[in-house]
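To: structure desk
From: M.T.
Subject: fold request, one chain
Message: Could you run this one when you get a chance? Sequence is below, nothing fancy, just the single chain.
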Amino acid sequence: MGMYSMRAGKDAVMFRIANAAHSYGLTPNMMTAMGLAFGLASGALFAVRFLPAAFALGVLSVFCDVVDGTLARKFHMESKFGLIFDSAADRSSEAAVVLGALAGRIINPFGVIAIAGSMLLLACRAAAYRRGYKTDYVLFGRFERLVFILAGLLVPNVWGSTLCFVTAGILGLVSACQIAINLYRQSKT
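Reply: Done. Structure tokens follow.
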């Protein structure tokens, strides 16, 4: 069931932060946009190997991603657009970090498999959302993929880093296949 099974516990911790964000007038889509901006900036900083700031912005990006979902659920601001925007922003941030790692020579070109897994997952999620289906049943969520990407950014050699990025891509491909199979089964009923 992946990290999605832990969502209730995570949300309980995040409710205070969501309450504060809501009191300042922040919406889930605003949080998603901030997370996207931090993710893109993180990728750019990985490209020039300014690693401390790149990691800090990457953490802020993930934090915004956690808050946006909690905010949407807690204050009943979920929308089809928000689901797709969140998923697209997450995949764009991941792609920026992967391309930044490639440009910064942290990984070799095989590492872009992480982007392929991420983009196929985005396409499958968008198709499911358009049909009104949730995708929180996938085996591997963003957290698992980010663990491998983070590990890849910390491993001191290019091949080890690349292997971590390839693993993240495979996890995305597995989750995309799960969604595709579910969509196929739903179309047959």
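Reply (cont.): The chain has a mean pLDDT of 90. Let me know if you need anything else for the meeting.
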